[in-house]
Amino acid sequence: MLLLSKSSLVKLLVQRVGQANLSTSTVAGLEKFKKINYEKIGIVGVPFEKGQRKKGVGLGPKAIREAGLIDSIQEISNKLDIRDYGDIRYEALNLQGRLAANMKKLEHVASCTRFLSERVTQVLNEERLCLTLGGDHAIAIGSIDGHLKHCSDVAVIWVDAHADLNTNSTSPSGNIHGMPVALLAKELADYWPYIPGMDWQEPIISIKNMVYIGLRSVDPYERLIIEKFGIHAFGMREVEQYGIHEVMRMALERVDPEGKKSLHVSYDIDSLDVLEAPSTGTSVRGGLTLREGIYIMEEAYNTGRLAAVDLVEVNPSIGTPDDVRKTLDAAIHLLVAACGHNRRGNFADTLDIVGKKK
């Protein structure tokens, strides 16, 4: 049997790109995902709110930054190389009258998520852990697509009170922030009509590589899809039954049993209980505690394979100043956990002890 080195295998794949229908960037991603350097972090802001109807969620990235995100991450270690890539800017597409029924603001969603996909791929290709700050959850269409273009073997942990699994024919509202999982999953591709402006995005991730944590508000058709396709879903009932430690262990085992996939955590702040994060647009009582929410991020980081994180649906326009402060504080706790903060204490950058006698 002929054994090839990793570099030789990648070269062979590159030579056969045409035959295998793989892009060179995808082939490069197969080699690169294990090289994510946790000492290098990239931050991307997406001040986007057209995927839903409430104003203010587009202010989320600015508010999270101003609440001290970068300084909080830097406190983990002075060795961390943190680069802020700024915010995604876009112009709405001119769809020339072409519409997809029951998909509001599609011209905005299609344009913004395409630019975001390209930026996330760039950040990951530069071997950085990618933190994407929303914005509403429609942006995950772009962030996960960008991750898939970097590396085809991705597992997604979707932390949310809602399943975001509606199609345009099942959505009661037409708000696209309730559709991203259905748009991304290849098993649901036949349930969609042609969507103008979305030709760049191909549903290639298997629903079997996605797992939900924190569900407690699921629409009837979403529940039907979850049951029909056997989607891995751990709602708040399961969190209560098994505890967050066991839920996270089972979640990782279901979507990545061999421990080889690049991980993407798409985290809606409304997965937390409204008492923990009140400034969000679609809050539901009975959610995760902040401790449980942090644990999810810690365990994802501890796999050594976490490559990308979305933190979405923080809306600084909702609630009192204290509500906003509490929600931003929760968001930063989640993000620093994703970057390696340890609640037992971070390691010092040096073993030199101040005042040590020679």
List the helices and strands and how they pair.
Blueprint: H1 6-15, H2 17-20, H3 24-32, E1 37-46, H4 60-66, H5 69-74, E2 81-87, H6 106-125, E3 128-134, H7 140-150, E4 154-159, H8 180-184, E5 210-215, H9 220-229, E6 232-235, H10 236-242, H11 244-255, E7 262-268, H12 290-302, E8 306-312, H13 321-338
Parallel strand pairs: 1-2, 1-3, 3-8, 4-5, 4-7, 5-6, 7-8
Helix pairs in contact: 1-3, 6-7, 10-11, 11-12, 12-13
3D structure, described in words:
This protein is an alpha/beta fold and 358 residues long. The protein is 37% helix and 15% strand. It is built from 13 helices and eight strands. An eight-stranded parallel sheet has the order 2-1-3-8-7-4-5-6, with helices on both faces. The radius of gyration is 20 Å and the shape is globular. The chain starts with 5 loop residues before the first helix and ends in a 20-residue tail after the last helix. The model is unreliable at 1-33 (pLDDT under 50).
Dominant shape: globular
Biggest pleated sheet: 8 strands, parallel
What share of residues is helical? Answer: 25-40%
Q: What is the CA-based Rg, rounded?
A: 20 Å
> Quick one: how many beta strands?
8
Name the poorly predicted regions. 1-33
Number of helices: 13
Strand content: 15-25%
Cα distance, first to last residue? 58 Å
What string gives the helices and strands in order?
HHHEHHEHEHEHEHEHHEHEH
Quick check: average pLDDT?
90
Strand order of the largest sheet: 2-1-3-8-7-4-5-6
What structural class do you assign from the helix and strand content? alpha/beta
